């Protein structure tokens, strides 16, 4: 066998490998001999079939199997000889493969970088923000619950409608003095500012009161989903039956019972524990983010392009699943931002992996079982389905294992550095998390999702077509 390293480009190593035909043929003969011991050929005793018959009958069937075995062995040989750690599955391109001719193929291996860990891992202390809960935090949460249980009440006849309030209306829509299909509706409840109607319609209802009658002139958008109405001017005769406003529920025992608690005190206690758990989670996110920022500043090494491409695919797939970002994705600055984030994630992932390897940090089966149980407990009544999901889904299990491993490495690092604690308010902690740039892509997702939702509302035929 001949191995020539033909090119080195950063972490990418390229080899030209030649395997003598005699060696390939000998492997084929060995495999055919094994087959000959187990198959029955008419006219011959078991194990006595002549080789030329076995070749004629089975050679084409086992050729790929033998070829893959030889290439796999040679790849292992190259990896061992050149002391490479492949970042992904090596690429193989067969250049010569024919009867009686030496096998020749090109092997491309993108290796993991050599990472030199220097201890202490970072040279500065980290600050951990811990929230101190106050009565105001509990009150805010109670007000949110009361607001979610709000009710509507009819206002006085003189009350004029404001944004966020409800007008109960009858309307008759016409184009060129002809009532269009779906344009005659009675008793429709419209929340002003909801964006459920075509642009300009709701604005003209602000400041109206019960029994008002008015004419609303609007233009259907060019991109309106009902093509017969798109781009056309319309006139609506509207009568306001009544104006309603939302009133939050009272913060009392009934509120607690409606939220499935026995008493208001029990609800307050549950809120306290929930905020406490959430703040502990946010503190962990903040500390981890600050640590990763310091690691990113201190360690700068070449990253395999193949791993960056995989991470980019993950980012783009998540974006595609969350929003329509075709136009955004064509923006060069956006692409550069994605590339920068993907590169940083891969570099930090490799660094944490190397630290874990160096310090013999492992994830045991008990660790996995505990994590799966914890995950299952989050979904009451679906525990068996969660367990089965992880049993049948190897990718999900590997992802969980990687997550546990990463947290173990983070814990190990934090034990080796100085961490000071600073007490802040709950709102301050939440604001700190909101300002962390670690999840820039998630911000893009949220932004695009909001735009998509607005567009969907615009194209819902604004309830008119539904009626």
Structure described in brief:
The chain is of the alpha+beta class and 467 residues long.
Describe the structure.
With 467 residues, the protein is of the alpha+beta class. It has 3 domains: 2-110, Trigger factor ribosome-binding domain (Alpha-Beta Plaits, 2-Layer Sandwich); 151-247, Chitinase A, domain 3 (Roll), CATH 3.10.50; 255-458, Trigger factor, C-terminal domain (Trigger factor, domain 2), CATH 1.10.3120.10. It contains 13 helices and 11 strands. It has helices at 21-36, 51-82, 135-148, 253-258, 264-298, 305-322, 326-329, 332-358, 365-377, 383-392, 394-416, 426-434, 440-458, and strands spanning 2-9, 12-19, 91-96, 103-110, 126-131, 151-154, 166-175, 178-191, 213-219, 233-247, 419-424. Strands 6, 7, 8, 9 and 10 form a 5-stranded antiparallel sheet that branches. It has a 4-stranded antiparallel sheet with strand order 1-2-4-3. Helix 5 packs parallel to helix 12, helix 6 packs across helix 8 and helix 6 (305-322) runs parallel beside helix 13 (440-458). The longest helix is centred in the middle third of the chain and has 35 residues, at 264-298. The radius of gyration is 34 Å and the shape is extended. Residues 441-467 have low confidence and may be disordered.
